[in-house]
Design brief:
Order of helices and strands: EEEEEEEEEEEEEEEEEEEEEEEE
Number of helices: 0
Helix content: under 10%
Strand order of the largest sheet: 1-24-23-22
Largest sheet: 4 strands, antiparallel
Oligomer: single chain
Amino acid sequence: ASTTPAATSYHFRTINNSNDETFNQLLGINSKDKIAGYFGSGAAGHKNKGYTLLPPYRQSDFRTENFPHSAQTQVTGLNDKGVTVGFWSHTNKASMVNANFGFYAIGGRHFRSVNFPTSNNSAPPVNQLLGVNNSDIAVGFYTDSKGNSHGYTYNIRTRRFHRVTVRGATSLTAAAINNKGSIAGFLTNSKGVTKAFFLRHNGQLITFGKTGASMTQAFGVNDFGEVVGAYTVGTGSSAKSFGFTWTLQHGFRTVNDPKGVGATVVNGVNDAGDLVGFYTGAHGNVNGMLATP
């Protein structure tokens, strides 16, 4: 059973790095309340710059974390043992189309690039690590020459890859893994519909989508099987994004930052049910969000 019941209410807090108050995304939170994220939109002159953040989340509590000699870095996930994961790029193009390479770091200092071994890469190549558990199993994806995503796990200790596949999926992203080995993410089927999936450690596969949504994506999962993400209602310029939590027992619960209703994404959750993500505010700035039950 989830520690977070169906009728949970949250206290919301905006957290931004003062190096760029206009764009911050908080992407992961561990059981010690340490947060992973980055600032900078990635537009020319606004490079992605990675960081981790410690309680009580003052500006002095930010720790810079960037892949050595990179132009851009996003820190996307972390475990409880000092391992962080993410991706980096050596360019910051005006088109925002840059090669991406996955990485893991130990203690924020010892970095290693990680890329799925395939000759069927997009141009430029895209490889990203998005989550990691306490057994040092990371999850991520690469993009093929047709633009489809392929999920995988990477064992940091043995340096071995394994594909994450779902029958009937034309594109799949493995976004998060908990300490039991259960994986959350999202896939697109042959009809072009994007839904979330939860692949439990016992092999049970659950796919789900929010009723009325044009797209449902899972980005995080904790050890209690609480999955978080975002669903989209509408398309194009009228599309709205709503954060959610989901459990097998209780189904969906919509989570919106009050300052960004219809423009909220939940990216990470820890075992206490604390949520991290981001929202777009009234002035168009993207703000880091912490929501605590």
